[in-house]
């Protein structure tokens, strides 16, 4: 479930053993997203054991393949079995709902938006040649120049309704003045800046290059993979800019091309989530979050289901949570799991 590989030799524990040590649960997926699965199962178990009845029907869905775009998981189910989700109004899933500490204030990031996901392939085909010749139409050189342009492109800051509120609320919490820039905000956030930095702009990152098979052979084909995450609604615009950057000699194709989401921070389910966070952590602040990654909520959106990231976790101040996503020695505090299970149990029963 939603888990990437791990190189065991890089870890201080067996990444798939589920080690409990020093008040943490260690293992690949502890953060992304086995903790949410565990909290949902534990919350439902509590409800069943107590014999209590929720206010509405609950659909509990576990999807495979999220880390590969959900083509054989959530998208497959939505496209082939939409009846399973009949009547559903809203969904909660991974990532949002955890806390950071800013200016000695605990702040929960309620995920109301996520960027679009575009996995792009680049391909250059040219005449092969001997490596000792003057050969300007070199597939490797053409591709390398295109990849460098994509990597170096400066995407402008572009705020949406979600990030407008996030920006203004974080400035208030951090004690920054109204004229402070996004960069001022990120500097003030310190170790937590990566949580929100990509929310404010589109991103395009080269993630792989493949070409050639021998030192003295200029190959006919060179290819690259690009991971693009766009602000919701800007998918086509960004693809057009990428096409202009790479030029006509580079062929573009897509492995995955999915939508972005932006939901209402003041909807009934969002208001209930805020109420419960404050019930279990009085005095906390709650702000909306646009994540740079993606979730299975993208698939459910095709059925008109509003998707939120709400895996509530009260995190210790010194833990750099965002660094642990797909990271080495991924781990989560046991206390955070207990907190989240309490909050989700109340949500199941009361919403």
What is the structure about, briefly put?
This protein is of the alpha+beta class and 351 residues long. Helices cover 32% and strands 23% of the residues.
What does this structure look like?
By secondary structure, this protein is α+β, with helices and mostly antiparallel strands. The chain folds into 2 domains: 199 residues, 3-Layer(aba) Sandwich (Aminopeptidase), CATH 3.40.630.10; 96 residues, Alpha-Beta Plaits (2-Layer Sandwich), CATH 3.30.70.360. Helices cover 32% and strands 23% of the residues. The protein is built from 10 helices and 15 strands. The strands form 5 sheets. Strands 4, 5, 12 and 13 form a 4-stranded mixed β-sheet that branches. Strands 8-10-6-11 form a 4-stranded antiparallel β-sheet. Strands 1-2-15 form a 3-stranded antiparallel β-sheet. Helix 1 crosses helix 10, helix 4 crosses helix 5 and helix 8 crosses helix 10. It is globular and about 75 Å long. It starts with 18 loop residues before the first strand and ends with a helix.
In the CATH scheme, the class of the largest domain would be Alpha Beta
List the helices and strands in order: EEHHEEEEEHHHHEEEHEEHEHEEH
Shape: globular
Number of domains: 2
Distance between the termini: 26 Å
Please count the helical segments. 10
Beta-strand residue percentage: 15-25%
Radius of gyration: 22 Å
CATH architecture of the largest domain: 3-Layer(aba) Sandwich
The CATH superfamily of the largest domain appears as Zn peptidases
Count the E strands.
15
Measured as a percent range, the helix fraction is 25-40%
């Amino acid at each position: 479930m939603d888990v990437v590989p791990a190189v065991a030799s890089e870890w201080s524990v067996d990444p798939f053993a589920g080690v409990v040590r020093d008040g943490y649960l260690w293992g690949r997926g502890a953060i992304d997203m086995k903790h949410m699965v565990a909290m949902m199962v534990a919350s439902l178990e509590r409800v069943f054991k107590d014999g209590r009845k929720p206010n509405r029907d609950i659909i509990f869905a576990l999807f495979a393949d999220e880390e590969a775009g959900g083509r054989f998981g959530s998208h497959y189910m939505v496209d082939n079995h939409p009846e399973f989700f009949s009547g559903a109004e809203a969904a909660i899933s991974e990532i949002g709902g955890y806390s950071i500490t800013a200016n000695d204030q605990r702040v929960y990031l309620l995920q109301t938006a996520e960027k679009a996901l575009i996995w792009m392939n680049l391909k250059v085909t040219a005449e092969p040649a001997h490596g000792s010749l003057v050969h300007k139409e070199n597939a490797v050189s053409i591709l390398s120049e295109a990849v460098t342009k994509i990597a170096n492109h400066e995407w402008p800051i572009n705020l949406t309704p979600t990030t407008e509120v996030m920006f203004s609320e974080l400035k208030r919490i951090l004690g920054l003045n109204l004229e402070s820039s996004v960069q001022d905000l990120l500097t003030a956030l310190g170790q937590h800046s990566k949580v929100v930095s990509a929310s404010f702009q589109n991103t395009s990152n080269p993630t792989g290059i493949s070409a050639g098979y021998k030192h003295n052979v200029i190959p006919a084909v060179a290819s690259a993979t690009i991971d693009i995450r766009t602000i919701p609604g800007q998918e086509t615009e960004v693809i057009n800019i990428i096409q202009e950057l790479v030029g006509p000699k580079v062929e573009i194709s897509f492995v995955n091309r999915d939508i972005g989401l932006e939901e209402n921070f003041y909807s009934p389910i969002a208001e209930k989530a805020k109420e419960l966070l404050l019930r279990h952590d009085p005095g906390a602040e709650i702000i909306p979050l646009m994540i740079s990654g993606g979730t299975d909520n993208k698939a459910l959106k095709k059925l008109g289901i509003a998707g939120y990231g709400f895996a509530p976790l009260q995190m210790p101040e010194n833990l750099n949570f965002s660094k642990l996503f797909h990271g080495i020695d991924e781990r989560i505090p046991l206390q955070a799991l207990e907190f989240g299970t309490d909050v989700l149990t109340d949500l199941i029963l009361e919403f």
